[in-house]
Amino acid sequence: MLRRMVLSAAAAAAPCLRNAALLGPGALQATRIFHTGQPSLAPVPPLPEYGGKVRLGLIPEEFFQFLYPKTGVTGPYVLGTGLILYSLSKEIYVITAETFSAISTIGLLIYVVKKYGASIGEFADKLSEQKIAQLEEVKQASIQQIQDAIDTEKSQQALVQKRHYLFDVQRNNIAMALELTYRERLHRVYREVKNRLDYHISVQNMMRRKEQEHMINWVEKHVVQSISAQQEKETIAKCIADLKLLAKKAQSQPVL
Amino acid sequence: MASPVPVKEKKLMEVKLGELPGWILMQDFTPKGIAGAFQRGYYRYYNKYINVKKGGFAGISMVLAAYVLFNYCHSYKELKHERLRKYH
After folding, report:
1. Which residues in chain B touch residue A125, judged by CB atoms under 8 angstroms apart?
2. Which residue of A39, A54, A227, A251 is most buried, as measured by CB atoms within 10 A?
3. How far off is chain A from B35, nearest CA to CA, in Å?
4. Counting beta carbons within 10 angstroms of the beta carbon of residue B49, is it exposed (0 to 12), middle (13 to 18) or buried (19 or more)?
5. Per-residue pLDDT tens digits for A201-224
6. Smallest CA–CA separation between B15 and chain A, in Å?
7. What number is the ipTM of this complex?
8. Could you give the angle at which helices A97-161 and A163-226 cross, rounded to 10 degrees?
9. What is the pTM of this model?
10. pLDDT by residue (tens digit) across A110-165?
């Protein structure tokens, strides 16, 4: 029974854990939702230009407005005067030596504030304006940077659309290279085959030439061998007789 | 005394005079509540008179005047003896 109580207490104390256990480890991360509401602090509202109005440097304007319906414009001043006279007369405020030092101090303070208040205010305004300008610069620079990044990203995205040109060019180049190597190899094959065929042709020519020369030499040799000595003498005599005949003929020709 | 808006959430100016003791008793007097009240009061004064673009002297002068008054009240006991007249 004690254990049951402890379990029920634990279940009551941690309902989110129980739901988480039901969902399972992976599903818990998926179903958790963040940042659904509108951000309440952005944009931050700008600082008010002037503070709450204060009269005499001491009493807020709201007090005067509070008394206006009942006592009109002079009400609070009469109230103030009455209070001061009452405190003086009943010596709730005691006049001592410090009163005079207080009067001098406050007088001096009022004089300084009245005389130099405006210029000090302008100086402080200038300082804060410088600070604001610096921060504004940083903000503008950051915005510009991000804008440039956005433009770069857009142009990159536009470029992606034109990738197919690049791929076409590459494909054309590859096709041309393939064609070139094919033709080169074809030409080489042709040259090699022609080389082999030329070789065979020149071998045949050489063989034929050799055979011709050999035959001619053989025929000459045999003819020269067959001419005996006597035949040689008869041939030479006949040649001389023919030459004489020719000479006579040649002498008689030019006369005609 | 039965009003449509519950008494606790009304601001001080809207509480009727008869409901005042009830209202005071309903306020949060835990340490956290008191600290919260001081924080709220501080930020109300700060955001109205000091955290502005062109604040004036009034922002600190009111604080100094309140401090002067507080110190005067605290040392009234000793100042009583420096009165100029005994009977007023």
Report:
1. 53-54
2. A54
3. 24
4. buried
5. 999 999 999 999 999 999 999 888
6. 16
7. 0.79
8. 40
9. 0.56
10. 999 999 999 999 999 999 999 999 999 999 999 999 999 999 999 999 988 888 89
Would you call A46 helix, strand, or coil by DSSP? coil
Q: What is the band of A16 on the pLDDT scale with cuts at 50, 70, 90?
A: very low
Render A61-107 in DSSP notation, one character per residue: HHHHHHHHHHH-SSHHHHHHHHHHHHHHHTTSS---HHHHHHHHHHH
Quick one: CA torsion of B38, B42, B48, B52, rounded to 10 degrees? -160
B58: exposed, middle or buried (C-beta count within 10 Å: 0-12, 13-18, 19+)?
buried
The whole-angstrom distance between B83's CA and the closest CA on chain A is 6
Check CB contact of B23 with chain A, cutoff 8 Å. Answer: no
Using a CB-CB cut-off of 8 Å, the residues of chain B touching A94 are 79-80, 82-84
**Testing the interface with A: which of B46, B47, B54 to mutate, by most A Cβ within 10 A?**
B54
At CA B17, angle to CA B11 and CA B18, rounded to 5?
115
Strand, helix or coil for residue A60: strand
Four-residue CA torsion sign, B29, B33, B35, B39: negative
pLDDT above 80 for A33 = no
How many helices (H) does chain A have, and how many strands (E)? 8, 2
> Are A117 and B48 a contacting pair at CB < 8 A?
no
Give the residue from B5, B9, B3, B39 showing the smallest Cα distance to B23: B9
Does any CB of chain A come closer than 8 Å to the CB of residue B45? no
Nearest CA in chain B to A114: B57
| Spans in chain B with pLDDT lower than 50 | 1
DSSP A48: P
For residues A57 and B57, the answer to whether their CB atoms sit within 8 Å is yes
Give A123's DSSP letter: H
* DSSP assigned state of B83: -
